[in-house]
Design brief:
- The chain is of the alpha/beta class.
- It has two domains: 1-45, no CATH class; 53-206, TIM Barrel, CATH 3.20.20.190.
- 35% of the residues lie in helices and 19% in strands.
- The protein has helices spanning 9-12, 23-26, 47-52, 71-81, 94-103, 134-143, 158-165, 179-188, 198-206; strands at 60-64, 87-91, 109-117, 123-127, 130-133, 148-152, 170-174, 192-193.
- Strands 1, 2, 3, 4, 5, 6, 7 and 8 form an eight-stranded mixed sheet that branches.
- Helix 4 (71-81) links the parallel strand 1 and strand 2 (87-91).
- The longest helix has 11 residues, at 71-81.
- The termini are far apart.
Length: 208
């Protein structure tokens, strides 16, 4: 099932935990009407259905929100789609992403994480299963075949990006919605930005 949240409360009005609920029960829920009448009747999609929508030349980022138990099924679904070369995989679990790299050696793997500055000025990267100083985290990521650090934008600057590049790691910043942060991150040299306001970012980049 493709779903951002761990349960259905926000989008369906009743709480069912995704990982504990059968797909046929989840598919009966209306997960669109909370947004607007226009989307009433929308059903939670299977990943297979999402993969079918990738256009020629398009790219799909699949975020893993569970553990490594999903990987054999994920590999089967991606292979069956015929669009393996149009997929990247991201996730907050460092160890899950390292295991994902071993299953998908040809697919870009990106670790989602938080950046934090401690009182002693130490800067760390962390997720629910990992926490180390930035340089050590970069080394571990590169050593496990992870190609990208997808980090909360707050503490990203040019020094951060350059340190990542020294380990051949791309840097993507999330979630960025203010023009001042767009400008700061572009000047820092990030490779990508996750935003809820793509129109504003496009206008900033193109001057249109």
């Amino acid at each position: 099932m493709v779903m951002h949240d761990p349960d259905t409360k926000r989008t369906a009005g009743m709480k069912l935990v995704i990982r504990e609920t059968a797909s046929d029960e989840l598919r009966r829920l209306d997960v669109g009407k909370w947004k607007s009448k226009e989307y009433a009747g929308e059903r939670m999609p299977f990943l297979e259905e999402i993969l079918e929508t990738i256009p020629d030349g398009g790219k799909l980022y699949i975020e893993i929100k569970c553990g490594t138990e999903i990987l054999p099924y994920l590999e089967e679904i991606i292979n069956r789609s015929g669009k393996r070369n149009q997929v990247s995989i991201i996730g907050f679990g460092f160890n899950v992403m390292a295991a994902t790299r071993r299953i998908f050696p040809d697919i870009p793997i990106c670790w989602l994480c938080e950046s934090e500055k401690r009182k002693d000025d130490r800067r760390i990267l962390k997720s629910y299963d990992y926490e180390k100083k930035v340089e050590d985290a970069f080394e571990d990521a590169a050593g496990n075949g992870i190609c990208c650090i997808d980090v909360r934008h707050t503490h990203v600057d040019r020094a951060f990006v350059e340190a990542a590049k020294n380990h051949n790691l791309d840097v993507v910043a999330w979630t960025v919605n203010k023009p001042k942060d767009f400008r700061r991150l572009i000047e820092a040299g990030v490779d990508g930005i996750t935003t809820d306001k793509p129109g504003e970012m496009k206008r900033l980049l193109t001057g249109g």
